[in-house]
Design brief:
Layout: H1 13-26, E1 35-36, H2 39-46, H3 50-62, E2 66-69, E3 73-76, H4 88-91, E4 109-110, H5 123-139, H6 151-165, E5 175-177, H7 179-191, E6 197-202, H8 206-214, E7 218-225, E8 228-229, E9 238-243, H9 257-270, E10 273-277, E11 302-307, E12 319-322, H10 328-339, H11 344-355, H12 358-382, E13 389-392, E14 399-404, H13 410-419, E15 422-423, E16 439-443, H14 449-462
Parallel strand pairs: 4-15, 6-7, 6-9, 9-10, 10-11
Antiparallel strand pairs: 1-3, 2-3, 5-12, 7-8, 11-12, 13-14, 14-16
Bound molecules: pyridoxal-5'-phosphate (PLP).
The site of pyridoxal-5'-phosphate has 13 residues, from helix 7.
Amino acid sequence: MDIHLRLEGRRDLSGQIYRQLRAGIVDGRLAAGERLPSSRELADRLGVSRQTTLDVFERLSAEGFLCPRPGAGTFVAPGIARTAVPNPAIAADGAGDWLQPEAVPAHSLEFRGGVTDKRVFPFTAWRRCVNHALRVQARDRGHYGDPAGEDELRLAVSRYLGFHRALSCTPDDIIITHGAQQALDLIARIVLRPGDVVAMEDPGYPPARACYEAHGAAVVGVPVDDEGIVVDHLPPQARLVYVTPSHQFPLGMPLSLPRRIALLEWAQQRDAIIIEDDYDGEFRFEGRALEALKNLDRADRVVYVGTFSKTIFPELRIGYLVPPRTLNPSLRRSKQLADWHSASLTQTALAKFMLDGDFARHLRRMHGLYRTRRQILLSHLRQDLSPWLTPIVPIAGIHLSAMLKPGISESGLLAAAAAQSIGLYGIAGFYRAGPPQAGLLFGYGGMADDEIDAALSTLATILPHVGGYGGQP
Ligand SMILES: Cc1ncc(COP(=O)(O)O)c(C=O)c1O
């Protein structure tokens, strides 16, 4: 048998030989029943002492990887080689870069989507609320809380939803989660069986796709047009439909009223569940607010999902869901099984922040700041950037998308902008089913007015020099 072993340096020689032989046996390169060279021959070939190879053979034999047969030699044991089978949780690559830990942005001007501006967060008020939570915690012995969340926080969220989204719900209807992402996961746990079909918007939100794929679902991308998801294209057997009705992710248009009604009827007829991900709908800048899809739901089909990631900051890791009443008990149980409950300290602090009015004040302030930032962005898109980009003007949210006019390479533009220290993010990667369209997603939550202005003025000087692409973004 011809085995190739490579030794690096002179340290831990037996460990190096052991690991390489073991890996060869496990992945089948050293086939069951094959005879290994003798320990003396291997030692000579590798330039190590015979004792070293003897130790390795002894260890591999003791662990059952090798079978020594006195007088005949040493053989690879049978039944050990393993074919690599992708683990669906790891293989779910629908999220691409989104599942990597977020790198600290390398660019001085960053249009990363979903980022909020922590520089203007009222940390003094927040500190007061955290101190309050610490005092509350110190009163009690340690105990586990309610899986659905702390009473005060559920009260605060139910009031907030009633006021801002006209969603009538009681604290008992609410389950507090670790961000919207955990809400999506808990729903998948109780609704999906491996092989079930999940429909979602295409282009769509990669972490949602990755979550359903990790649960073994077959995810089908459904096209969107300027009214949102095209209900007529929903796969008839879908068990779950994931949508972003207030602010389609990533393009930004709201789901029109006729489509909302069609979607609800569709789900009712097929006994399907709809997830309404209302991730940044509170920042509405024009037009009449379209109420939450859940408000129109007369057949209890919609699970409403919200998050504080866009109104406060993502590191808080607090979200919530308002499920149909019939799903409430199993979702509570699934939350308990997942992590018992979200951190009480953060929940109590956040409840105080909301009930004292600090959250509403913060929202009002951010609304004003984001409105101005959005205006600066739009005026560049409508003026100096208009030869290259066509904005899709959303009524809500803290990011805005714009499609590149034909002939401009998205990847070429991202690279050219990065060279000027401007972090731009493309749209093409969000398409899975349909042909990718080239465009940009401008997250403006984390950038000050002058930063947006400076970045877009530079962009206008870069765009004329970005090459074409011959058909592909
Ligand atoms: C479509 C969508 N849903 C939800 C979220 C927020 O998720 P989480 O609450 O887990 O931070 C984001 C953040 O970017 C998003 O874009």
